[in-house]
Amino acid sequence: MVTYTFLAVFLCLMGYVTYFEFALSEQFINNPYNKRQELFTQKVIRGEIYSADGVTLAETIVDAEENEVRRYPCARIFSHIVGYSGHGTAGLEATANFSLLRSNIFYGEKVVSDLQGEKSPGDSVYTTLNYELQLQAFDALGHYDGAVVVLEPQTGRLLAMVSKPDFDPNTIGEDWEELVDEDNDRSELLNRATQGRYPPGSTFKIFTTLEYLREHPEDYTDYRFSCSGEYTEGHKTIHCYNNARHGSEDLKEAFANSCNSAYSSIGLELDLAQFHAMCESMLFDTDLPVAIESSKSSFVLEEGADTSAVMETAIGQGQTLVTPLHVALITGAIANDGVLMSPYVIDHVSDDRGVLVEQYTGKEYGRLMSSEEAAVLKEYMGYVIEAGTGRQLSNDRYEVYGKTGSAEFSTSSKASHSWFTGFAHQDGKPDIVVTVIVEDSGVGSEYAVPIAQEIFDAYYIE
């Protein structure tokens, strides 16, 4: 009996060691508190990071005195997604830290380097990032603060990720004290694409619509509402943008017009317990399935909420907060017939000679909605471009499906963030999702939509 007990314990220990080696070792080595990183840096020259099209995004320069300097040739353009190494690590420099500090050159070469007191070259990380799309997104966002996310919905490949205000990773050492100063309210180090939490505005009507579809699977096409420019229930009045009177609308028209009156009315019809459960299934209050650091979106509306909270939440105001990446992932699931692919940004890792060390591929996270539900939402998002608030994106070169939004964020003023999220299709090229938020700017159709158009054009036309 004792023998079998010891054998069982031994097998469990061997199993855990194996699990740790293959599943957890990289996570522990990437931990900034792990002192083993210092041992790696003593033996390995930190590897390079490249875009998908071969542009160098990060490299280590060694001078004649063998001093190492981390250099970022693209500077601010990739600042948040590539990150920095110095004063800790961030972005891909943190996510891929293990790979960059690992050398897979021939073992004999390592021995020779060790005997000569020389360091071995670290492995190189090749990303899914498209340099031209990243540059286009960076330039299109211009002087505005905000974020842009571009991804392939069928694979989960992240093609571009921009956050502003930005920083120069080449001068992170000199700028550090200013960047982290408690009086600095710019938060340049915050990756707004993954960590910024914003009221979703009318982009949230995607979720309100989905819940209405689930509660009215047989008769949602019979929905009618007469919009007079405002809707009052009790002591709460919701206004449409500029008090526009949309007249008689069905559900698709209300979605395309981004009719606040109709959607605040719809919110009062919903089963709030089911609504909350649906939003949780749509990744609210949940860690996003992505390796880079991200924040949780939050949805707090529950059964018993007062009328005002329900009406505001249904149109994307209230206390709901989302990250741009979260919005992009839901948009990607709609584009992919209801299935969400986990986003990823590392394509493969190779050694100093270009020999493949590790290849990454897209993985299915799960089905967030039925293909029928996704088809209805896709139809409605297409109508936004055809006849609604996104008409500027209508063209004969590629098809666009989207939703605009304007999210008020101050109770003392009418200041608002500008949103657009959508995807495009053209035969012969992969679909792409583009999600844009422009802080403190105005209406989504006036600010976020033109930025999305520049990115779509750059991908499908130029």
Structural write-up:
- With 462 residues, this protein is an alpha+beta fold.
- The protein has a domain at 201-345 and 363-460: Beta-lactamase.
- It is 35% helix and 22% strand.
- The protein has helices at residues 2-30, 36-43, 79-82, 92-95, 97-100, 107-115, 131-141, 172-179, 205-215, 251-256, 260-269, 272-281, 307-314, 324-335, 371-387, 448-460; strands spanning 44-45, 49-50, 56-62, 68-71, 84-85, 89-90, 120-121, 124-127, 146-151, 158-164, 225-227, 230-233, 236-239, 247-249, 339-342, 346-350, 356-359, 363-367, 399-408, 416-426, 429-438.
- The strands form seven sheets. A six-stranded mixed sheet has the order 4-3-2-8-16-17, with no helix packed on it.
What CATH architecture label of the domain at 201-345 and 363-460 applies?
3-Layer(aba) Sandwich
Specify the helix fraction band.
25-40%
CATH topology of the domain at 201-345 and 363-460: Beta-lactamase
Percent of residues in beta strands? Answer: 15-25%
Q: Which CATH class of the domain at 201-345 and 363-460?
A: Alpha Beta
CATH superfamily of the domain at 201-345 and 363-460: DD-peptidase/beta-lactamase superfamily
How would you sum up the global shape?
elongated
Spatial gap, N to C terminus: 73 Å
The parts where pLDDT drops under 50 for at least 5 residues are 16-25
Q: In what order do the strands lie side by side in the largest sheet?
A: 4-3-2-8-16-17
- Oligomer state equals single chain
Count of DSSP strands:
21
Number of helices: 16
Overall average residue pLDDT: 90
Sheet with the most strands, sense and barrel status: 6 strands, mixed
Radius of gyration: 25 Å
